[in-house]
Amino acid sequence: MKACILAIGDEIVAGLTTDTNSGFLSQLLRGAGIDVVGYMSVADDETDILRALRRALDDADVVITTGGLGPTADDLTTACVARLANTPLDLHEPSLRAIEERFRSIGVEMPANNRKQALLPRNSEPIPNLSGTAPGFILTLSVDNGGRSVLTLPGVPREMKRMAEETVLPWLVQRAGGGAIVSRVFSTVGLSESRLDEMLAGCMTPSEGRLSFRAAFPRLQARASVTAPSAAEAEARLVLLEGRIRTRLGEHLYAVGDEGIEETVGRLLIESEQTLAVGESCTGGLIGHRVTDVPGSSAYFAGGVIAYSNEAKVSLLGVDPATIEREGAVSEATVMEMARGVRRALGATLGLATSGIAGPGGGSPEKPVGTVCIAVAWEGGEWARRYQLGSRSRSWVKEMTAQIALDRVRRHLAGLSQ
Amino acid sequence: MKACILAIGDEIVAGLTTDTNSGFLSQLLRGAGIDVVGYMSVADDETDILRALRRALDDADVVITTGGLGPTADDLTTACVARLANTPLDLHEPSLRAIEERFRSIGVEMPANNRKQALLPRNSEPIPNLSGTAPGFILTLSVDNGGRSVLTLPGVPREMKRMAEETVLPWLVQRAGGGAIVSRVFSTVGLSESRLDEMLAGCMTPSEGRLSFRAAFPRLQARASVTAPSAAEAEARLVLLEGRIRTRLGEHLYAVGDEGIEETVGRLLIESEQTLAVGESCTGGLIGHRVTDVPGSSAYFAGGVIAYSNEAKVSLLGVDPATIEREGAVSEATVMEMARGVRRALGATLGLATSGIAGPGGGSPEKPVGTVCIAVAWEGGEWARRYQLGSRSRSWVKEMTAQIALDRVRRHLAGLSQ
Asked: Between chains, do B15 and A214 touch, taking CB under 8 Å as contact?
């Protein structure tokens, strides 16, 4: 089965917003063994939408659209698909009730134009939207008209993702004759894309399951998907594959599921009843920012010190000026004292510290740009190491340092060797 | 003139990376009055690339491609364009010398397959790449073949952007008979997209110049572009328009040019010989992270304290426990003491502090999620205010708070009213 993905919206083609929906859908579909032949993006224009739909249907068995399902006059997706299929729009009562209910739950009366969102092409199958007002739909064209299918989804990523995973993917797998599909995401750390690919190469045959990859730096994930006649059988086979993947990835696997390493660290801190404090030099606050992006992090995050200057390292973290004098601010000795100091200053059970040369300036032959030191301190122990990350860019060095530092905390909490 | 943008690469169609190039190019082209009819994305596959090129040339006068100009076997863009034009590839000596020189400058011998990057279609015009190895090219098809043009650019955003601005845009404007084009970006703060649109509505006629917009939250920018027979005349007219835009945007304009407000703040700090320290509660380190993303920020950024807990606010920032008891951690009084305290603790001339309820939990009827307090303290003065930002999402509240906080520092340094 081949699929083409079509993003519809003036804001995309004007360069005002970036389309991330198509990439998400592609990874999801490829995991199910569906070949994605390409993406198109067009503005909210009837002629452009119709031409793109026709081309996409020439190329693929199914076309998935995102966007253009809103209540306003420039939302044209539904009308264009109906015109293409030469079929009228009918009011879909259950969808109308769901939209009305959604407004009632937030104490707002439904504006009249939202009724439009419950108009669906005759003989289409609605795709329920449990996170917003616009339902999508699946319309299969008549055999005379090619017999291919158009699936429409809203453009809001949060709504689109849920509908794609809960309704679109199972439908596509059924349609491909595959029965049920189950998939699982494996979040990894410390690997490049090509290394991840290598490590998983040959771990399943195409008949056992399929792998797809997604990189959103610093996150790198693999998704394993299994199709089988029944969901129970697919799940049972996925459990077997998960075992193999876990063995292959070993300590590089930090979570099964789509989560950042800061979420894993948060969970481990809660489980072990520990608290974290961060002393950040080269990362400048990025680690604190990532840790506090997790809801509920105030339960385990004591806070931190952004010790950008040597004075701050000394006065707020209690680093010995002689250590900085002797070893430099970017050294295992200094960063160890920073980790110790921030743990003490904030009364946390764990201290994490970073110091490095993010560039572009500040490098030297002994300590070039990308030289980074990371330390973890705890009751009765501490650990530090120096890394040479290279000088790709300032923000890259910061992001990599934060990622490695959080991974060091994960390893410590999980009882893995450093 | 109509343009279509084509992104080429397996990694895009596999969902492994997100295409941000097309949006950048669209904004650039629309600023020059060129109508962008849509985007397409295809894999590194000859059949798919040729089909997409043909369709794009059906729709538009010019097609701009990104990607597929690398040295490896799966880089097919140049070969496909040559095949479409039915023209051979010739070795372009100046491009080969530029590639060899690039490798020499980093002390590496040029791998043999990089020679491929200097093979360009006969009669094409090279687009020099001053930031990487792959040159692009402009090839105008014969009149028999439609007389339309294909412009190729590499997929690496940094290389692509520079080549698009320095070579592609001027070429397109010439081709459209427009003489020269100059454009300028206006970076704004404190506005929604629709408000920005309103504020600039009617400030220039289409014959005077053109406006386009780009939003990459929290950044929101307008670009004004002027075409004229000569660059000098275009520049003179742009200066007039810039005056009008400055008047319209007033204090919402923080920079002419594409920069973050943290860069503007950095420049103002250097100019006034001041230093900044941040006391962050709800932003969790995000302000420090943004400030330290600017190269050279160590010259003016003293550091900060991530005072996530009340204990940290008291012990590290010297906030009076009675203030927190009486007013709450999210209050003008507490955040004022935090700003004062962090300024003192880090020996900076300016202290900036944030405290708020980022959600999703922690809200109350008096202080719902999205309630945020910001303070600035300096020698002899201080300022604080409470905001109701709403509860869109945890990370949105953090980003908005950081943006407003940095803007308060900008306003203070620029001598604007708070």
From this structure: yes
**B 253-292 → A contacts, CB under 8 A:** 278, 280, 282-289, 291-292
CA torsion through residues A168, A170, A171, A172, sign: positive
What distance lies between CA B191 and its chain's CA centroid?
17
Could you report the predicted ipTM of this complex, rounded to two decimals? 0.82
| Per-residue model confidence as pLDDT tens digits over A290-316 | 999 999 999 999 999 999 899 999 999
Q: Which two tokens stand for residue A33?
A: 């063994």
Any CB–CB contact under 8 A between B55 and chain A? Answer: yes
pLDDT of residue A217 exceeding 90, the answer is: no
Please say whether the beta carbons of B68 and B44 come within 8 A.
yes
* Nearest in space to B352 (alpha carbons), one of B280, B269, B251, B414: B280
Give, to the nearest 10 degrees, the angle between helix B332-346 and helix A310-317: 110
Q: Which residues on chain A are in Cβ contact (under 8 Å) with B282?
A: 292
Percent of chain B, pLDDT > 90?
74
| C-alpha B184, offset from chain centre | 13
The CA distances from residue B152 to B70, B80, B117, in Å, are 12, 11, 12
Mean pLDDT, all residues of chain A: 93
Q: For residue B215, give the nearest of A17, A301, A398 by CB distance.
A: A17
- Which DSSP symbol is given to A282? T
- Which of B153, B139, B215, B143 has its CA nearest to residue B6? B153
Assess contact for A281 and A356: CB atoms under 8 A.
yes
Which of B13, B282, B362 is closest, CB to CB, to A36? B13
CA A213 to chain B, closest CA, distance in angstroms equals 6
Cα–Cα distances in angstroms (integers) from residue A42 to residues A13, B36, B119, in the given order: 6, 9, 33
Is the pTM value of this prediction over 0.90?
A: no
Across the interface, of B13, B40, B293, the residue whose CB is closest to A394 is: B293
pLDDT > 70: what percent of chain A? 100
